[in-house]
Description:
Structural class: alpha+beta
Radius of gyration: 14 Å
Oligomer: single chain
Order of helices and strands: EHEEEEHE
Helix content: 10-25%
Shape: globular
Largest sheet: 6 strands, antiparallel
Strand order of the largest sheet: 2-3-4-5-1-6
Amino acid sequence: xxxxxxxxxxxxxxxxxxxxxxxxxxxxxxxxxxxxxxxxxxxxxxxxxxxxxxxxxxxxxxxxxxxxxxxxxxxxxxxxxxxxxxxxxxxxxxxxxxxxxx
Length: 102
């Protein structure tokens, strides 16, 4: 089973209004990262196809596309590919946020 990680400011000693990572802040940051693209629909294809609406920043890593999903003021990413760990740390550092499992 793969782990899921959350990039958050929830545990930081800052004003409550600054604890949410805004969508606009994410769009601005990821626009400066050439290996990321934004999409409002993430489609998973396997034995069936499923589309999920939301705010996704797709990281291109080789042939893989790994979604970083913005949801309710945090970013979520799956840890199923070990390569995501250093990228996740880089993103959290740039957004001045923490990483928690779950």
